[in-house]
TrEMBL record:
Cleavable signal peptide: none
Every Cyclin-like domain range: 76-165
Species annotation: Helicotheca tamesis
Protein name as annotated: Cyclin-like domain-containing protein
InterPro entries attached to this UniProt entry: Cyclin, Cyclin-like_dom, Cyclin-like_sf, Cyclin_N
Family as reported in the entry's similarity comment: Belongs to the cyclin family.
One Pfam family from the record: Cyclin_N
Length: 312
């Protein structure tokens, strides 16, 4: 049994944990993401459902439905609220998991067809996630004020029970950033990887997981796959002297050994490309922290765009 000195909550003080325990946690989260917390392609199902005559002859009703671009807009709004209220970005990802899974249920269908109700559901899922995971709770009254008239305090409390009931009170989803932490903990067991390199990989990978939260494409992609795609992209963006090819190969072989994901499969490559294209579209980053590493990944993303024939 190897003992790894690592942190599963970067950046925090490190603690000692065995790689067997890390693997056990990963496997447990993998079971969750494949079963309890799996989310269907609810927009496709809604689109394929037979439209009634009212929608056919009144296009304005269709325009009120939620689509992928509108979901992205709302998700980005949640991150803005998180920054304003000092909420952890992972909490936003959890809130969007609540929202997506709720919309996959029968109770979520009316919300999916009404953008005002969708806004109310979004605020409510963010409220639930904050209440469950943040140290400081933000009351429904405060969220009502933050929403700027999108919903009232009673709207939030009423919607809360509807959502929790539809989710069967399953509010502990495995997140892609949580998988990133555990995969990076496994990575450190190979030795020869500096703490700063691991921290840089964590920063770059987390940025990509946030891109995945905004992009509806990733709703049906397992968080573990998003995490590995993010890490592999980050590794490719690091200088060769920081991360040897042998260590990268050893990391991939470890993932294949445990049978959790297929790091070299077509789906993984598609996820990597999608994340890189999304990263390139972000544009310049104002924050100078880790700017060098971010620039490397942006360069890699732009190069991949050219390879795919996508105009920047």
């Amino acid at each position: 049994m190897n003992i790894v000195e690592t942190s599963l909550d970067l950046p925090c003080d490190s603690f000692t944990i065995s790689d067997d325990e890390v693997t056990a946690r990963i496997e447990a989260m993998h079971i969750q993401e494949c079963n309890t917390y799996y989310c269907s392609d609810y927009l496709k199902l809604e689109f394929e459902s037979s439209p009634d005559e009212e929608c056919i002859f009144q296009p304005e009703i269709i325009s009120k439905k939620v689509d992928a671009p509108y979901r992205e807009k709302i998700s980005k709004w949640c991150f803005e609220i998180a920054d304003f209220c000092q909420i952890d970005h992972e909490t936003v990802g959890i809130a969007m998991s609540y929202l997506d899974r709720f919309l996959s249920t029968e109770s979520g269908i009316p919300v999916l067809r009404n953008r005002k109700k969708y806004q109310q559901a979004t605020v409510t899922t963010l409220y639930i996630a904050v209440k469950v995971f943040e140290r400081e709770v933000i009351e429904p009254r405060q969220f009502a004020i933050i929403s700027r008239g999108r919903c009232t305090e009673s709207d939030i409390t009423d919607m809360e029970m509807i959502i929790l009931s539809a989710l069967k009170w399953r509010v502990q989803p495995p997140t892609s950033i949580s998988f990133v932490r555990h995969f990076l903990a496994l990575l450190t067991s190979f030795g020869g990887i500096g703490r700063s390199v691991v921290n840089n990989l964590s920063v770059l990978s987390q940025l990509q997981t946030e891109i995945a939260v905004n992009d509806y494409y990733f709703v049906t992609v397992k968080p573990s796959q998003i995490a590995v795609a993010s890490i592999l992209n980050s590794i490719d963006g690091m200088p060769d002297k920081s991360f040897s090819k042998s260590v990268r190969c050893a990391f991939i072989q470890t993932l294949k050994k445990h049978g959790i994901i297929c790091p070299l499969g077509r789906e993984m490559k598609e996820a990597q490309d999608r994340l890189l294209v999304g990263f390139a579209e972000i544009g310049a980053i104002e924050d100078d922290q880790d700017q060098f590493q971010r620039d490397m990944l942006c360069g890699l993303a732009c190069a991949r765009q050219e390879e795919l024939g996508i105009a920047t």
